[in-house]
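WARN no homologs supplied; continuing
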Amino acid sequence: MLHEDSLAARIIRRLRGYGIVTCRSDGRVTRWLADAEAVTGYEAAEIIGADIGLIFTEADRAAGVPLHEIETARALGAAEDSRWHRRKDGSLFWANGAMLPLQVNGAEFVKIFRDETPMKQAEEQRLLLLNELNHRVKNTLATVQSVAEQTLRSAGVTEAVRRELAERFIALSRAHNVLVDENWAGADLDALVIEAAKNENDKPVCA
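OK structure emitted
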């Protein structure tokens, strides 16, 4: 047990957004420290002695994830954990952390996790908006291509010119796909050029 006035105890008391839990190899909780109560909603008195699986989702419990995490920590020295967990009230929180052996003989383990729910939700919202934007851009490109084709055909522009313009729209669409695959964070220039240079039969326009 930690001495109440030890440096480690003072650090643990000041941790916010982090839960520190110790448990036996069978998953029974032995300590409930730091911000574990605030993150999960469980008070120490009601969860010490209970199964650590209480803070895992039903699907993860059914899949044996809590004990698998302990066994992985025993075998490899650590088990990283980034997944949805369950609070006492049934709501979910995204926790990122790790399970570590606390004793050499593997009799006790410590699970340290951080509540990253706001960041996870913000990332999911960002991806949702990005996917919607990508969808709208592709639709806009298709509409512009169709309008251009009809306009040029009505004006009597030769098929060769219309086909070349259509291929440029396709190249622009493929360049867009490369950027989408990289989440608009950047793209390899070679990959961008190769994709944009392909013709409708996926063969490079030029060698």
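Helices lie at 7-14, 36-40, 44-47, 58-62, 65-76, 117-154, 159-181, 189-196.
OK
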